[in-house]
Amino acid sequence: MKIQDSASESASEPLLDLAALRADTPGCDSVIHFNNAGCGLMARPVLGAMLDHLRLEAAIGGYEASAARAAEVADFHAATAELVHTRPGNIAFAGSATHAYSKALSAIDFRPGDVVLTTRNDFISNQIAFLALRRRHGVEIVHAPDHPDGSGVDVAAMAALMRARRPRLVAATHVPTNSGLVQPVAEIGRHCRELDLLYLVDACQSVGQLDVDVERIGCDLLTATCRKFLRGPRGSGFLYVSDRVLAAGYEPLFIDMYGARWTGPDSYRPVDTAARFEEWEFPYATVLGSAAAVRYALRVGVGPVARRTPALAARLREQLAGVPGVRLLDGGPAPAALVTFAIEGWRPQPFKAAMDARGINSALSFREFAHFDFADKDVEWCLRLSPHYYNTEDEVDAVAATVAELAGSAR
Ligand SMILES: Cc1ncc(COP(=O)(O)O)c(C=O)c1O
């Protein structure tokens, strides 16, 4: 990966070699991809790693192929650990962020009356999982209020709830799916550490676009996908498990022969590392593609990516702000690269179809994805545009012009 210095940026800041990055990304030739919050475009090394492995499996056998690539498979854990600032033994591969999240929740021995303290912007599937825990185990779900200034959860109020309710679990989503809001997860984490509360963070939308540091956040568990801003393949994600949680003996329900040793006819012992949250069977081509994606992100550089990606989104917001009929919906002082807006006079599918027809990938969010947030904003749906570092300023301008054209046109 070439990263060149440029006089056009501040002296200390390397400029990404956009031409090289785009040449590495076949999708850039065919589409303006502003749906990285859905699924990022894979780079050639990711595709190559997966195709090579599938060919190897076909040529020599699946078990033999994974044995031959053991070092590269192990690099998934090493690279991901480097990305989130931990050690390889604290990382477990998962089939999705939701898979990682359910495994994490399954490790907690919830009892009736236990409190799960979360926010009004936690991801839809997490909220449904909490409701399922309420239905099955009688847990109480408490939502911390948002700060009146629109900056996300009110951390002081959340900390007061931690003290008053002593939750069994504190859960926060770093960047929700339904807006560019960045929740103050490290501030929440400071209170969790001070009060010794179990803390689970959903970093699905932040990993790969922001610097996610599990130590700085102070979380016990953290989940993410590889397919979004990390630009990995579909069907991959990971779970970070802290040393504290491993040492305390947390293990997933239905631990398998990879996560545990069967020590005798009626006993088993979980392995010492986060591998206790993995299963024996791996989609090896996908794991290798994910490892390649994480290495790629590290080569491009977390710092430059974290500066450029939200800056492209900010440029887009700036232009959309002046478009009559468009209402921007992203709160917080420094929103991430998820640009969401409501548009007057359009229904959701025709609007997205009009974007599709102009070669622009986007995504819709509905009230059902974010009951609290969308009720507060009084919207039923919005369009989400999520650029990434490999998008260009020209693409941002073209997308803004397209939205402006559609906003002024017949429905
Ligand atoms: C914030 C957030 N958390 C979790 C998920 C779920 O990820 P996955 O589809 O990999 O399970 C998403 C997906 O959009 C998300 O945006």
Tally of helical segments:
15
Helical residues, percent = 40-55%
Overall 3D form = globular
Task: Give the ligands present.
Answer: pyridoxal-5'-phosphate
Oligomer: single chain
How are the strands of the largest sheet arranged?
Answer: 4-10-9-8-7-5-6
**β-strand amount:** 15-25%
Strand tally:
17
Mean pLDDT: 95
Biggest β-sheet, characterized? 7 strands, mixed
End-to-end Cα distance, whole Å, is 44 Å
Label the structural class: alpha/beta
Radius of gyration: 22 Å
Low-pLDDT runs = 1-12
Give an overview of the whole structure.
49% of the residues are buried. The chain contains 15 helices and 17 strands. A hairpin with a 2-residue loop joins strand 11 and strand 12. It has a seven-stranded mixed sheet, sandwiched between helices. Strands 13-14-17-16 form a four-stranded antiparallel sheet. The protein starts with a strand and ends with a helix. With 411 residues, it is α/β, with parallel strands linked by helices. Helix 2 runs antiparallel to helix 11, helix 7 runs parallel beside helix 8 and helix 12 runs parallel beside helix 15. The longest helix has 19 residues. The N terminus is likely disordered. Pyridoxal-5'-phosphate binds next to helix 5.
Topology:
Layout: E1 3-4, E2 15-16, H1 18-23, E3 32-33, H2 44-60, H3 62-68, H4 70-84, E4 91-94, H5 97-106, E5 115-118, H6 124-137, E6 140-143, H7 155-165, E7 169-173, H8 185-195, E8 199-202, H9 214-217, E9 221-225, E10 237-241, H10 243-247, E11 260-264, E12 267-270, H11 284-300, H12 302-320, E13 326-328, E14 339-343, H13 348-357, E15 360-361, E16 363-366, H14 371-377, E17 381-385, H15 393-407
Parallel strand pairs: 3-15, 5-6, 5-7, 7-8, 8-9
Antiparallel strand pairs: 1-2, 4-10, 9-10, 11-12, 13-14, 14-17, 16-17
Helix pairs in contact: 2-3, 2-11, 4-11, 7-8, 12-15
The structure holds pyridoxal-5'-phosphate.
Pyridoxal-5'-phosphate binds next to α5.
